[in-house]
Amino acid sequence: MYMRRRTSSLIVLVLTSSLINFAPARASDPRPVDVVSVTWPGAAAIPSTVQEISHLIDSDVNVRWKTFTTLVGDTKDRTTDFVSGKILDAPIELKIRMACTGTASSTFMYGVRNEAYKRLGITDFNNRYLVIVAPESGCIWSGRTLLGSPTSTNGIVVLHNSGSAFIITHELGHTFGLGHTNFLRCGSGAKDGAWGADCKAVEYGGVVDVMGNLNTQSPLNTYHQWRMGLLDDSQVKQVWQSETVQLSPSDFANGIRAIYIRDGQSAYWIEYRRANPGLSYKAGLVVFRLDPPPVSSIVSPNSEDMVASEFGTELGTDVWMLNLDNYTYVLSQMSGSMSALSATTFSGNVVLNAQINGDKASVMITKKADITPPPTPVLSNPATWIVPSAEILESGYDDIDTEIANFQSKIDGVVSNVKASEVENWYPTYLQPFTVPKTLQVRDLSEGSYTLSIRATDLVGNVSEWSDPVKVTIDRARPIVTSDFKTTAITGNQVDLAWAGAKDAGSGVCLTNIVNNEGVINQSSSDSKVPNLTISNGEALTGKAQVFDCLGNGVVGDLTVSTTVLSADKSTRSGKWSMGSSSSGITSLKCTGKCSASFSAKGHADVLVGAGAAVVAVGGKPIANIADSKLAILRIGASIDVGKTKRIIRVSGANFTVFGLNLVTSTFTNINNLDRLPTISDLSLLDPEQDSLGQYGFNSTDLSQEWSVYPMDGGTSTDAATLDLCGALYPSELKRLARRQVIATKKDSPYTFLSTEVVAYSSSAAAKQAHIELMKAFAQCTVNKGYIDASGVSVPYVFKEILNLPTGLVDTGSRLIVRAQIDTGSQARELFGIYQFNNEMFTGLYVMTTPEKTMTDAQVQSWLQVAVTMANRLNGKAA
């Protein structure tokens, strides 16, 4: 049974069982299982000792899993072997009883695991499993596990007042990412039906394999085998029309071993089971539903299932077994057989008839013919086609009965086939578990201006109507970018530059980002005429520069640009000169009568002048005239390109003022093509309160497009904790009015956790209280080198010094910056946290890595600069 089943990784088991003894066996994939126990004041004794549980791993659990993963005729050695590992003889004494539900339960599991391996002297437990034997704690469940994946090689199992090998076996299934085998039970006696008042989803009730809740030796169903990788996609036959399939038994390795059928909004998984001595089912087909029930249709002994969030469309870990014969499951007791040689879906559209021929079942599938064409495609507004990967079709074009096979376009009346794209960011759903759906993107269309219509064809040949025509212009050309920059203004130490070398002859340049090594956008320009950047005089701006046109075609390269002022007093002069005014830290020289000032420079130079008119010559040849001005302020009189070698630049005239030259040095290298990606909508920002908080922390424009930024689960409420450093108590948590915490993720991120958090407290005094509590917890944690959690398990912290703090952070008395290694061994992680307060507002920046990927000093400095940006936002400054 899932705990908060739609989002959590915790699975529990409520069951009754009896022990079955097996002989030990060898296998090729040894996975050590360590056993420890816990106790607390007033706790009862555990029903089985750790030595007895460890013995069961070898004598029972090992044999079961070896049987489940050894398939008839398998030429691959995929057998799983759970073997007994280390034992902790003395129980781990906790201060309080074990939590049964919620985050406290998972915290308990992690904490006990860390403490257990410290006592066992094992620092690397990434390839070990741990069984925690706990006494009676009032929990409804007998076993609890952290949900893993088919590639997992570790896990934590909690036995609650139990010594059952079957429970251990079941829970270890969850470490492979397996869900429960449940039961579809209709009160009317129907074998199948729509979820609702009649047909219910009985948790655990599909006792056809070990992932139900009754002790059985029956093989894993093929859906669970498929999820574990014990059968390939090619061994699952998707059926769209009537046909006959030769189906191998569920415990065989070769041949077609499962059938997938979609019937409207329902999905079916069919397997063939041989009769097995000692098991109640007959030889025949076993049918499972994959489309999940609404919460209102779930029957479960766990009340948490009744308030869980609804299932989504994603392909789940659970299945719901149909009763095709005389199977019953009542009060955790079962009888009869669930298999049969025939079945009909509740719509009547699909009929299955099987005939057993030797080792296989010949399954004749009669499916109602699909003669309904796909829905008529609707083209989205071409104004939204601003990136090559933008989908040009509105949602709802999917075929009801099958899938879209291909598209055709009609361009100015000419019909042709269009090579479709796969839907991006697709995940398997119960209606499409194998094949990525097809769609059309801007990049799939021909270049040019024309009138466009689209139609779709499904897998069985039905063709939709043509979409309404729209006029479109498709431009595939990318911007042409060179390293040509021109100075547009100098204010103080800041130099404004126009990237004159970034051009696009088609739709124009629409977005330019300068991105640092962490993927943080240091500067961005959306000026449609020319990108504008700002740098500090004498300092270099470096980073990955992304330049996109207005249709999302782009390039990326390594940019370096810097400016240096060559002041007028560094020139060779003729005529009468005197000291003039100063502007932006630059002192001018004023010419009386006829004068000239000569500079030696190369590359790009901007001539800085004040009042008066002048002529600019390079190598003795006049190339620019500076218009007359009566204002004695610094201005850019001319922009010139001298070339790669130094030449003499002469500024001459009468009665004018010169400040000098602003020299721009820039390179743009390692240029590659880059398509702009669509922005993912954050619906939480439709809430005005969340939108207001969103201006302080990460948003989608702060990070490069390979990063995704979205609210954490529970990140838009004050239900979850804000301050949790060193496990301290923070009474100020009750004084939070609103909260927004977002997480940033990308493929192959160097960080295990990257997040910003924004909190509005009820008052400045409440925020001040929070800062005081935080500093107190930090001081105590530093002295104690960690803390003891509520269960009595120690959590060590090793704090590191942080050097070279930048200017711009909030005042020292309103912040805390922490860099610490938390815990030890394989569970150690490094936290870099920056906590900043201003009036009633708080922002937190949290970066976490593993010890193997500890942050470099350069990375720390990068995130400190991000914290400066967040401080500016806290202080109401533009950032």
TrEMBL record:
Looking up SUPFAM superfamilies in the UniProt record yields: Metalloproteases ('zincins'), catalytic domain (SSF55486)
Supply the InterPro entries for this chain.
Ig-like_fold
Protein's recorded name = Unannotated protein
- Protein source organism: freshwater metagenome
